[in-house]
Amino acid sequence: MTYDQTTINAYKDIKRIAKHFPGRLLDAFECFSQNQYDCKTWLIDCLNQYPYHFKNKTKDSIDIAVLGGWYGLMAKLLSTNFNLKPIDSIYSYDFDPIAKKIGKTLFPEITFIEKDIADLDLNDKHFSIVINTSCEHIEQNLLYKSMDTAPSKTLFVLQSNNYTEIQQHINCVSGLDQFTEQYDSRLENIRAFELEKEKYTRFMIMGVKK
Amino acid sequence: MLSVYCVNWGTKYPREFTSKLKESVEKHLTVPHKFYCYTDNPVEEYDVQVKHPHLRGVWHKLALLENTGDSLFFDQDIEIKSNIDFLCEDFDKFSVLDSTPWKPKNIPLLEFRMTQNTLVNSSVMRWSNHAHIFEKFMKHRDMYLRLYAGIDRYIYNENVEYSPIRTDKITSWYQKVDNSAIVIYNGKYK
């Protein structure tokens, strides 16, 4: 293991979580696990190659929303690895107030917002890109509802999977075809991807809201 | 009338556990009552289909709180050995067992908090009008299922308002007490 200032900073973060939110330490480890990292860097790699036009793409910088942002891993990785456009702000939404507190501590450059997806109005801000990597956790009608609040030409990036063994996974899809069909009527210029994992397959689509 | 509930979901407990529980309740509870078993495999006349197909295992216990009226709940893995009429009081509070008497005393505080441990046990529950507890769980079910291994940890760590049942008439098999009215076999059947 390389021991340098980055390692020291990581231990400082772990210590802070253990001190102030001990019940969330194991959950935070899960949030920042190898699997989470792999799925989110895969997203950014694919997103960086998205060829079609989307809202505000010609502006100098854009705003991005991450729904179900947990402790902010997706937002943080976007802030360092996204290269389609300069980013003005990244908003990480989660209904969990402790996720917001921990996220703000770890990544002060990210804007954490405590909000339930059921109460979300994506028209409030001028997001060019909206990302939701936890579609399998959310009822389909709520996913549609949040999407329908967004303006036309917003680029959506969605991930789901077929990992039905997990109790929280109430909205899995059987394959990429089903996942794409769910959004055919709402998105255009859809690009679809899949990533084989050891126990399941992760699916991803990105498309521009009609 | 008092309702007595149990849950038999999945394959952990063979049907005999439920029939034995029902028989022992009939034998040792003199208060008029009706017995129900919430299950994903209803076969008996007292069986009721579980109402939340997305939930698994112990979380169906929490869903019972949707039922109103004076209610008692017993786990499948308990043994009722003598009269349990003493439980038929204080239905206005949501009550669960105080697990302090059998909880190991040497768990370091940080470990206890990090693992979201608990000092309550829901092998026996009592309530009347507490659907709001289940409603709160369902509102952010996804997060709670991620954070907690079971409802005892959920109840204790999410500050659910509960009243601890403290009585030497209910003991755990860990305590090796022979003369209690109810023995709970928590953790015995994996």
Sequence-ordered SSE layout with sheet pairings:
The complex is a heterodimer of chains A (210) and B (190).
Chain A: H1 5-20, H2 25-31, H3 34-47, E1 62-67, H4 73-81, E2 87-94, H5 97-106, E3 111-114, E4 127-132, H6 140-148, E5 155-161, H7 176-183, E6 187-196, E7 201-209
Parallel strand pairs in A: 1-2, 1-4, 2-3, 4-5
Antiparallel strand pairs in A: 5-7, 6-7
Helix pairs in contact in A: 3-4
Chain B: E1 2-8, H1 15-28, E2 33-39, E3 47-49, H2 59-63, E4 71-74, E5 78-80, E6 95-98, H3 109-114, E7 120-127, H4 131-139, H5 141-147, H6 151-157, E8 163-165, E9 170-172, E10 182-184
Parallel strand pairs in B: 1-2, 1-4, 2-3, 6-8, 9-10
Antiparallel strand pairs in B: 4-7, 5-10, 6-7
In whole angstroms, the N-to-C terminal distance of chain A is 48 Å
Uncertain parts of chain B: none
Strand content of chain B: 15-25%
Count of distinct strands of chain B:
10
How would you spell out the order of helices and strands of chain B? Answer: EHEEHEEEHEHHHEEE
Q: How would you spell out the order of helices and strands of chain A?
A: HHHEHEHEEHEHEE
**Strands across the major sheet of chain B, in which order?**
3-2-1-4-7-6-8
Can you walk me through this structure?
The complex is a heterodimer of chains A (210) and B (190). Chain A has 210 residues and is an alpha/beta fold. Chain A has helices spanning 5-20, 25-31, 34-47, 73-81, 97-106, 140-148, 176-183; strands at 62-67, 87-94, 111-114, 127-132, 155-161, 187-196, 201-209. Chain A has one domain: 3-Layer(aba) Sandwich (Rossmann fold). In chain A, 35% of the residues lie in helices and 24% in strands. Chain A has a seven-stranded mixed beta sheet with strand order 3-2-1-4-5-7-6, sandwiched between helices. In chain A, strand 1, helix 4 and strand 2 (87-94) form a beta-alpha-beta unit. By secondary structure, chain B is of the alpha/beta class. Chain B is built from six helices and ten strands. In chain B, the strands form two sheets. In chain B, strands 3-2-1-4-7-6-8 form a seven-stranded mixed beta sheet, sandwiched between helices. Chain B has a three-stranded mixed beta sheet with strand order 5-10-9. In chain B, helix 1 links the parallel strand 1 (2-8) and strand 2. Chain B is globular and about 45 Å long. The A-B interface holds A 18, 22-27, 95-96, 137-138, 167-168, 170 and B 54-56, 59, 110, 113-116, 140-143, 145-147, 157.
